[in-house]
Amino acid sequence: MIQFSRLDHILVSIPEGKTREARAFYSGVLGLAEIPGDHPGGAIWFQVADIQLHLREEAGGSESLRHPAFEVKNLDAARQELEQKGVSISYSSDIDGRKRFFIRDPFGNRMEFLEFVS
């Protein structure tokens, strides 16, 4: 059984060319603290209580990159269980301090599973 710890983050798509406008809204209007860094795909990250909100430009299409990210206690065990159940695993760019993979549900919704590593 997969041992979920918490919801780590949600990635929300924004239209191409709108990062500056998104930053102004989420930081300036909502007052969220931006998490500095060179994030994958040019994303901007904000802290919202104990989870993160990631915003990334996306052209749109049937295979969206939008997703929730679930922190789990043992990523390798979660991957093995999902593979045994016939779920396809995919990988993306590396992020320091995290191991991660992605799956899609039967409806095409993307989900990230991650584990923090030292």
Automatic annotation (TrEMBL):
Residues 6-116 form the VOC domain. PROSITE patterns: VOC. It holds the Pfam family Glyoxalase. This is Phage portal protein. It comes from Spirosoma pollinicola.
